[in-house]
Amino acid sequence: MKTQPLTAVLSLSLLTACGGGGGGNSLPADKPAPDNPNTPTPQVINTVDVGDIKLPPNAVARPHVEIQKKTQEALDLVNQVRAEKGLAPLRYNESLSAYATLRAQELATLNAHKRPNGENPLDEHTLTGGGNNAAVGESIATGSPFAQNTVEQWRNSPNHYKSMTESAYTDTGIGYYYRKGSQYLHHWAEIFGSSGVRSRYYYISPLYAATIRAAVAKLTSYDADGRLSLHGMENAANASNHRGIYSTAQSLALDDEHTIILRPHQAAGWSYQTFGEIASTRGGIPETYLNVGKPFIPTETTTLRANYKGNAIGDINQSSRAIAEVSASVDYSSNSKTMTLTLGNSQSGNLDGSDLRRDTRLDFSDTLHWDSGTQRFQSDSGHARLYGPNGEELGGQFSRSISGGANYRGAYGAKRIEP
User: CDD domains attached here (predicted)?
Assistant: First the structure.
């Protein structure tokens, strides 16, 4: 693809806010955040345990509506500059906007026309389409929270002004990002493209643990002994990403972009718990894993020594599916409060669950210790809870590095077996 030269290398004079202050930002964060991150709250034992939330590869969290208004204002101002020269307005391009949002986030780490991984931000791996005469460009700015000040900075910079008034550009996307503690706090990026140019990035609505818990809780009920029932879900056996131990999976749309997928506990012979995931509807990519059930919390006088068998499901870098057999031993007494977990006979394959093959990289053992604060077993790479009136079942999650630096994470469930 033919590209326009990078628009400018910013100098310090272009990085500071132009009047009106700008040392802070009261806008909501434009990325998922922990629930009530700054407010200590009493430990609450949830019936829906939500793991770490990861965006799919190439997905960018859709900004909060207030930030969308801010970037729309910037686009309107850029088009006013173009109108002064009799040029057609630039069209909003969501793909370019997603990339511009990502670039604004990257500027908080490296304030340059260079990506943190060393790539040229305008290379053909990132921006495609538009034919042999495609033209692309980038403008960046930092320091001001205001669209008007930022566009004025660009207007007063010859290279940035040239980009804003380039007749070859027809489409654009603008991103804004605020990061507390960064050098300039406020970061802006605009990506330009001629007709047909698009980026490999796309927007997706961010997930929040509280929203997931509330949605899944509506699908569950429990009897007096804590036996789990699922309601309102549909059989998802024919879906492409529900093979193997998910072959009888049930699902329900969380929103237009995400699906709740749970393994029916009855299919595994379980009564008190199950596990599942929240997957993107675009590609069925798992974003987070779930354990569902009413936890059993042993007391200081409880004695429990038991073995468990079950299975696990997971992913490798959100690009490959993995399944495994699970065995666990719990020793909970006044002298020891530990759980030993082993995943074996592991297999990996395509994300849709096809072409599964033995993968010894995924076999591992771990020792988890009881944490009285979280009231669950924990280690550096996972956690687990007991379920049922007397700990008849258990379930948990793991996340660990495997050979090559890949991340292997997932969820599991298991049932007590007789000695």
Answer: CAP_bacterial
Strands 91-92 and 171-178: parallel
* Domain boundary pick from 180, 204, 228: 204
Alpha helices, DSSP H, located in 205-355: 209-217
- For the whole model, what pTM was predicted? 0.85
Pairing, β 234-235 against β 250-255 = antiparallel
Beta strands in 99-199 (DSSP E): 127-128, 136-142, 171-178, 186-193, 198-199
CATH number at residue 106: 3.40.33.10
Q: How far, rounded to the nearest angstrom, does the alpha carbon of residue 304 sit from its chain's CA centroid? A: 37
pLDDT per position as a tens digit, 303-356: 999 999 999 999 999 999 999 999 999 999 999 999 999 999 999 999 988 899
Q: What is the CATH number of the domain that holds 395?
A: 2.40.160.90
